[in-house]
């Protein structure tokens, strides 16, 4: 069908500053800085408050080469900090590469962050026309697609409301609907779909599959490997800003799973592949059994305690901190979500450091290995979010107390239930 995206020796460099108390900067320092070049660690003479700033090069991407054909559906995966978002910003023409070049044919519609391309003071209706104009579409073309966009986004009642009053879910629904329906040759979607509910995510995946079947190109970044597997015919794995695998989805996802397992074995406190403002920082995740004793393996049907140690920059006393723990398959399918605000276990004060314990009565998972994602947030910001913070191994347990269920063939859950035939006696049979 022809090459529609081509990246050649693509690289993106950032200069990171680290402040520290130092001596005053002299003319000699400035001259030496010019002689050594920006690539060396230097003291910046213009730092505020008489503080020195150590500058350091950071390559978010380096030597990226690939070609994508028209109609390809490509997944881009990798842990946080691997360079996925930087790559998408370059492909979306939001930022320029430091080295190399990228060639694109046709219109590009991107959904990278909640609110990208929307003006908060304009209504939903006005933003649909604004986004269409940005994509280079005529008013008549946008008008023809208008009803389909509104129906897909499910925001009819709020169409003439400024989008600054939208919830994050409404924002994403409308943004995706605009991006997908205005017929770009290339559709780029980042992890923002995680904001929507499960039903809308399924709807979006269906739309992206439809877009791909029409001969348009789809690039999808997601931590949900099941979504990547079902939608994409090719997957690119990034790590430390480089392409480490590119090809068949099953093989690349297996390589990614192995990489995550290796990463999750590292001390959590040292992990830098995390998101958040750092006001809360998780330092370790562990597990305890029914007796409160540390355990490396959990039993189906037994109580499990997930223990997260943390540290705060300062004590938090606003009563708005929410903690969540997700248990997922190794391919990223979410199975269980535990949140303290769901259960009404709210904390008026979070001490500067401590131990957070989530107790799960009668663990309903079948034997297998699962991954744990942990998050601390408030109503405005994510404070710490770590994907694959730990792995949980579950082994067979006597969930029903009958001795009959050892290794269920269907799953992934076990659930309490009873049977009866009206008018017939019931006998409790426990297997020996």
Automatic annotation (TrEMBL):
<dbReference type="InterPro" id="IPR003593">
    <property type="entry name" value="AAA+_ATPase"/>
</dbReference>
<keyword id="KW-0547">Nucleotide-binding</keyword>
<dbReference type="InterPro" id="IPR015860">
    <property type="entry name" value="ABC_transpr_TagH-like"/>
</dbReference>
<dbReference type="InterPro" id="IPR027417">
    <property type="entry name" value="P-loop_NTPase"/>
</dbReference>
<dbReference type="InterPro" id="IPR050683">
    <property type="entry name" value="Bact_Polysacc_Export_ATP-bd"/>
</dbReference>
<dbReference type="GO" id="GO:0140359">
    <property type="term" value="F:ABC-type transporter activity"/>
</dbReference>
<dbReference type="GO" id="GO:0005524">
    <property type="term" value="F:ATP binding"/>
</dbReference>
<keyword id="KW-0067">ATP-binding</keyword>
<dbReference type="Pfam" id="PF00005">
    <property type="entry name" value="ABC_tran"/>
</dbReference>
<keyword id="KW-0813">Transport</keyword>
<dbReference type="InterPro" id="IPR029439">
    <property type="entry name" value="Wzt_C"/>
</dbReference>
<comment type="similarity">
    <text>Belongs to the ABC transporter superfamily.</text>
</comment>
<dbReference type="Pfam" id="PF14524">
    <property type="entry name" value="Wzt_C"/>
</dbReference>
<protein>
    <submittedName>
        <fullName>ABC transporter ATP-binding protein</fullName>
    </submittedName>
</protein>
<dbReference type="InterPro" id="IPR003439">
    <property type="entry name" value="ABC_transporter-like_ATP-bd"/>
</dbReference>
<dbReference type="GO" id="GO:0016887">
    <property type="term" value="F:ATP hydrolysis activity"/>
</dbReference>
<dbReference type="GO" id="GO:0016020">
    <property type="term" value="C:membrane"/>
</dbReference>
<feature type="domain" description="ABC transporter">
    <location>
        <begin position="43"/>
        <end position="265"/>
    </location>
</feature>
């Amino acid at each position: 069908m022809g090459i529609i995206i081509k990246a050649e020796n693509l690289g993106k460099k950032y200069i990171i500053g680290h402040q520290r108390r130092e001596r005053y900067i002299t003319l000699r320092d400035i001259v030496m800085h010019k002689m050594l070049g920006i690539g060396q660690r230097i003291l910046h003479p213009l730092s505020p408050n008489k503080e020195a700033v150590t500058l350091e090069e950071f390559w978010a991407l380096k030597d990226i080469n690939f070609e994508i054909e028209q109609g390809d559906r490509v997944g881009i995966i990798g842990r946080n900090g691997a360079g996925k978002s930087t790559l998408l910003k370059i492909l979306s023409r939001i930022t320029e590469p430091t080295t190399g070049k990228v060639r694109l044919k046709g219109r590009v519609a991107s959904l990278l962050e909640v609110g990208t391309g929307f003006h908060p003071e304009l209504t939903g209706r006005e933003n649909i026309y604004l986004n269409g104009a940005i994509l280079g579409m005529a008013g008549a073309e946008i008008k023809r697609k208008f009803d389909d966009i509104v129906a897909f986004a499910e925001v009819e009642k709020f169409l003439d409301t400024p989008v600054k009053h939208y919830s994050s879910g409404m924002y994403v629904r409308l943004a995706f609907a605009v991006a997908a329906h205005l017929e770009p040759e290339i559709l780029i979607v980042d992890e923002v779909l995680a904001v929507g509910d499960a039903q809308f995510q399924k709807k979006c995946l269906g739309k992206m599959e439809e877009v791909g079947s029409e001969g348009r190109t789809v690039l999808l970044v997601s931590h949900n490997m099941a979504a990547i597997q079902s939608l994409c015919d090719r997957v690119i794995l990034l790590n430390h800003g480089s392409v480490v695998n590119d090809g068949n989805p099953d093989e690349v996802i297996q390589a990614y799973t192995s990489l995550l397992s290796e990463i999750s074995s590292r001390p959590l406190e040292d992990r830098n592949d995390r998101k958040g403002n750092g006001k809360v920082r998780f330092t370790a995740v562990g597990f305890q059994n029914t007796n409160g004793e540390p355990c490396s393996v959990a039993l189906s049907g037994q109580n499990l305690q997930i223990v997260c140690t943390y540290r705060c920059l300062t004590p938090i006393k606003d009563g708005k901190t929410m903690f969540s723990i997700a248990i997922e398959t190794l391919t990223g399918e979410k199975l269980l979500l535990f949140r303290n605000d769901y259960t009404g276990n709210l904390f008026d004060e979070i001490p500067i450091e401590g131990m957070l314990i989530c107790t799960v009565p009668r663990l309903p998972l079948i034997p297998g290995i699962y991954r744990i994602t942990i998050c601390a947030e408030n109503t405005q910001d994510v404070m710490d979010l770590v994907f694959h913070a730990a792995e949980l191994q579950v082994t067979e347990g006597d969930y029903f107390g009958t001795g009959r269920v050892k290794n269920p063939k269907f799953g992934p859950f076990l659930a309490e239930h009873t049977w009866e035939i009206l008018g017939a006696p019931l006998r409790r049979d426990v297997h020996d």
